[in-house]
Write a structure and sequence with these properties.
This protein is an alpha+beta fold. A 6-stranded antiparallel beta barrel has the order 2-3-6-7-5-4.
């Protein structure tokens, strides 16, 4: 699953929301100013908002968005709350009430997915942080479980320093520390604590396991 292409499509799909929000805000301000100039009686003004950096540019609730590629529905994103903070240092997108991303195959069945209790996207760094109960399934059917995962778009790398559990078709691998390509198909597990074949339950404990598909 190409995470970078997935999230770029989501961004492009929702970019018009940001542009629309800015247009609405500008029109509203213009209307207020025009109305005020035509009013003879002056009214006391409320204190100006000085903490713009603490307010989101965009807030969307109960979002379910389908993303198309060449006219075919390929992706779906679900979240209870999506906030974009453009004035924070650094600026970021916030999904503090959970995030679910799904990829469809040619028959519209989900063949890969990402789920997290909390997610942040730092737009300047092009860095994703997934936290809480993070579950990822790649197109080969491998299932990844961890409590924190980073995805660096610039480096085209997914990584974590936390405990990770990977369930493959023939075995379960656990360890502390993980690096992978963006498709989650070529990865390295550091400080492995177990490699358990599902059939015979035999445990091996090498320092590092490298898996390639």
């Amino acid at each position: 699953m190409n995470l970078q292409d997935f999230m770029l499509k989501i961004y492009r799909k929702n970019y018009f929301i940001i542009r629309t929000s800015i247009t609405i805000v500008c029109c509203t301000i213009a209307t207020i100013l025009l109305f005020s100039s035509c009013t003879e009686k002056k009214r006391p003004l409320a204190a100006a908002i000085t903490n713009r950096d603490s307010l989101p540019l965009m807030k969307s609730l109960d979002v379910t968005t389908l993303i198309s590629d060449s006219g075919i529905t390929r992706y779906r994103i679900k979240t209870k709350e999506w906030l974009i903070y453009d004035k924070k240092n650094p600026p970021y997108w916030s999904f503090e009430k959970g995030l679910l991303l799904e990829k469809f195959d040619s028959t519209y069945h989900v063949d890969a997915s990402i789920k997290a209790d909390t997610a942040y996207y730092y737009s300047d760094k092009k860095l994703w942080e997934l936290k809480g109960h993070v579950v990822i399934k790649n197109v080969q059917g491998d299932k990844f479980n961890t409590e924190q995962l980073f995805w660096d778009q610039n480096l085209e790398k997914v990584y974590s320093s936390k405990f990770i559990r990977i369930q493959k078709s023939d075995r379960i691998i656990t360890g502390h520390g993980f690096e992978s390509n963006q498709q989650m198909t070529i990865y390295t597990i550091h400080k492995t604590s177990g490699s358990i074949p599902i059939e015979d339950k035999k445990v091996t404990r090498p320092d590092t396991i490298i898996v390639k598909h």
